[in-house]
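User: Once you have settled down, look closely at the record that follows, taking as long as you need, and be ready to discuss the fold:
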Amino acid sequence: MTASLPLSVVVPVFNEEGNVAPLVREIVAALRGVTDFEIVYVDDCSKDGTVAALQALKSEAPELRVVRHLRNSGQSTATRTGVKAARGAWIATLDGDGQNDPADIPKLLAKRDASGPEVKLFAGWRVNRQDTGSKRWASKAANAIRSRMLRDSTPDTGCGIKLFERDAFLDLPYFDHMHRYLPALMQRAGWQTVSVPVNHRHRASGVSKYNNLNRALVGISDLRGVSWLIKRSRVTRVEEV
């Protein structure tokens, strides 16, 4: 797909009926007058009224598009579905729970504009997390282990707000849970990444879809796989002559 917009905001959601309207309105408020954009919501086969809530917003937010999975496929697949459907040359992602602040997207865009073309990912860094103590502790431990194994120089890979080039993302190897390893995967592809401090908020509605145990169990296998990919990568720059 040829990019026809400078920016697409991709938001994967599963059972986030109560968070849809506030977040869409915040995205619109943050970006109208800043850049041309679209909002691509990917509903991962929600069982509540998420899709109906999104459809009701289309007249209010003409920038909004909605794609729906016919079966639940997880956040990484939903994110990739949104990126593939997007018309923007650059993608901003947000978690659908409202804990990421859309007002930070212009900050990421400004950081991009001040950086060189070799930087393809600007990753949010939650410096003041608004999660439970157990979740913060688990995340700190996981980040330390990941950083030691992958050496990706990224303090917070779990933050949902990111800005990256669409084509660079689609060139990455795809696997379930890949959204947690985007800095390492971008670096493996030969690109640079930058972490940017961002706001973080309490969840206003709904419940978290994850717990510390299931994150840890899948994380061990994922880390081994990403480490294997990095060790066997061969990055080659080419030029036309």
In short: The mean pLDDT is 88. The CA atoms of residues 80 and 171 lie 11 Å apart.
